[in-house]
Design brief:
Length: about 240
């Protein structure tokens, strides 16, 4: 995920991966095209599919860092897809990496004082669908940051302030479009961390990993069952 070089993608292909993701979105457009095409040219020799990225997502994920986001320009997608030959395209329409996807200044607060993030740019998504109808689209940085998990983490010693994510109803709307893959990572981290913190706080003598990783695993399973059934709509689909 978010490979940053041809060499890294090559190593993944040599390890047997059936698909790779090359992220040149932080580069100037022509350099992004060149890097992505080099990965596609290599990967397709081995029947490995390639996901590229156009538009910059803010936030931090592993070694990919961006302080600002840039929405994908719909008028660039035909050129990018045709020149690179990618099999799917990650776009930027307002999602962001991490548990703090937006600053408080970017949000509104509801009656309960909870931050409400700016809506996704479905107008950009619709225009991209017009430009490349039926082409597989990907959304990164799509965790919803469940507030109950955030509250549990903070209750038991955490310090997650103003953590807010993408509303699940907006992700459900996106899943009904050309978006075929929605990346969710922070939600799983939050669910596991909340469960582990609760065990450590309520039973500080516990040292058996099975006793705190078990509840964490159960919490993670519950979270992703909910995502598959109620958000992504991907249950019973191949």
């Amino acid at each position: 995920d978010h490979g940053d070089s041809l060499e890294l993608c090559k190593s993944c292909i040599e390890m047997g991966f059936s698909s790779v993701m090359i992220d040149g979105s932080h580069l100037p457009y022509d350099e992004n095209v060149a890097l992505t095409k080099s990965v596609v040219d290599y990967a397709h020799q081995y029947d490995v599919t390639v996901e590229g990225e156009l538009g910059v997502l803010a936030g931090i994920e592993d070694d990919v860092v961006a302080e600002h986001h840039t929405y994908t320009e719909p008028e660039e997608v035909i050129d990018f897809v045709s020149k690179t030959g990618v099999d799917s395209l990650a776009i930027s329409i307002g999602t962001s990496h991490g548990a703090n996807k937006f600053t408080p200044e970017q949000c509104k607060r509801d009656a309960n004082g909870i931050l409400v993030p700016p809506p996704l740019r479905f107008d950009i998504l619709a225009e991209i669908e017009k430009q490349i109808p039926g082409f597989p689209i990907v959304l990164h940085g799509s965790s919803s940051v469940p507030q109950d998990e955030v509250a549990t983490i903070n209750q038991y010693g955490g310090a997650l302030k103003d953590a807010v994510g993408i509303p699940e109803e907006q992700l459900r709307q996106a899943a009904k479009s050309a978006v075929c893959k929605i990346n969710i990572d922070s939600d799983g981290r939050l669910a596991m961390t909340a469960a582990i913190r609760k065990v450590f706080a309520t039973n500080p003598a516990e040292f058996d990993p099975r006793k705190y990783l078990g509840p964490a695993r159960d919490s993670l399973k519950k979270l992703y069952m909910h995502k598959v059934l109620n958000v992504l709509g991907s249950n019973d689909r191949i």
